[in-house]
Amino acid sequence: MARESGSIWRYTCRRMAHAVPLVLGVVVVNFTLIHLAPGDPILALIGEFQASPEFVQGVRQQFGLDRPLAVQLGLYLLNLLRGDFGFSFAFKQPVLEVILDRVPATLLLMGAALLYATLCGALFGVISSRRQYSHTDNFFTLVSLVGYSMPVFWLGQIFLILFGLTLPIFPAQGMESLRESYTGLARGLDILHHLVLPAFTLGLGYLAVDVRFTRASMIEVMSQDYIRTARAKGVSEQAVFYKHALRNALIPLVTITGLNFGFLLAGAVLTETVFAWPGLGRLMYDSIYARDYPVLMGMFVVISMMVIVVNLITDIVYSVLDPRIRIG
Amino acid sequence: MRQFWNKYSRNRPAVVGLGIVFCFVALGLLAPWLAPFKALDTGPHSFRPPDATYRLGTDDLGRDILSGVLAGTRVSVAVGLLAALTSTLIGVVIGAAAGYYGRTLDDFLMRVTEFFLVIPRFFLVLVMVALFGNSLWHVILVIGILSWPVTARLVRVECLALREKEFVESSRAVGASDLRIILRHILPNAVAPIVVSGSLQIARAILMEAGLSFLGLGDPNQTSWGVMLYNAQRFLRQAWWTAAFPGLAIFFIVMGFNLVGDGLNDALNPRQKGRELQ
Hints:
The complex is a heterodimer. Chain A is an all-alpha fold.
């Protein structure tokens, strides 16, 4: 037992060491972009705003723009490590503060979408795999094909028109009712009410992938030798299905969910724009409009870090669920 | 070729997909003759619901939606094809170099590939287009430059498997150059996975351009479906048709290319399971 937990730690350390170059890579990419951008690097560091000459001079000094490139890269890295991502003129706030303010709303939206998409996706996938080529299976296949090809922001617009405006069951915009000042449970319910449409929109593409994936994985597992062995031993069909097959078939779903985190974030950004959800997406939209480059670049760094961390966690969770992976 | 078509045509969804793709390509080519108005021309009637003159209605500036959708077809098809072509070319070069030469070069290139697979591509594309300008050519180039890793991996695997084969060995023995071996003997055998991933990348590139445009990074001088949806967002309350039709077009073209990709996969790589399990 002790040995086993030790190997989990060793695996974790190995994966973490693997993530360091990725993080550095993101910083280098960002640094390169600042210098390749047309005009003065100062444009990418401040954005298209009228900054005072003293401020511009300060930024030049802070990023060492008159010094050799290697020194500049070092200074840039140092600034980021200190949490200094620059200053946003549009928000009159440090960039990192602006971004971190918006992260919880986005995570809430993504969490809700992921939860329902994974649960329903696994359920529908299992049903599909049990009744291959039946009407139910064909129906889910069609739904997942549609879900897979649908641009998430257009789906959001259609839901908004149908269930937010024409048939106003759900609020069309925002995360809370601004006219009321709910507290406690009432506030939670109000947020939940606002959450339904955006979360449903964002999750649908995932549901599609999860249905296909679970179906394929389930069919594959059911054809394996150990399932035949279990059947031969006289284990009931129910027990074979739920105890032996399902568990193993669902493990890959962890990977698929983790590896698609970046796509989910991209979808979240687009969905937020449709529903005026006050998260990273809305911030991105506003920053593009205001040409607030420091915020855009800061967001790329923060989002990349999130993706790298989630990939790391996915790897570790997977290795706990399926210890064979640690040997590889 | 005939054998391939026999296999492909037995897959009904794949044939439907091909039909959809052909329709869009035809509409795109014939757009200037089919469109009743010029896509960017404003008219006197804003927010007209679909009627006999404006088949799909008009937007806030009185522009005809049908003409816009037709013009957008050209943009989407161009973005999809050119971006996928760019990324496939880069992917083939990197994958072939890594797989054929192996060792240090392989290690290095695969590290880079892995990096570009992990980082959130959509956001990097977004930052680059925001910084370097949002003309259509920039958008195509940036999407193409950042979408090669999947192709590179596929090509590398094929090269690794093929470079030890006897026919490669024998052409090396008669003095063929590396470039000749790669171009004449290895790549032709790797065409199937390249074509499959290329067709799926067309769908992804189209979706990505639409997403960028929807966030306000579309080329303002082109009528693209994403730009139309960006404009429609402010007027969803008044005019559902400004959003409904351009979005429907994106949906169908993406589904068309996805179906073709899946169909090609089934017809060309019969041993491989669906792409879900890759």
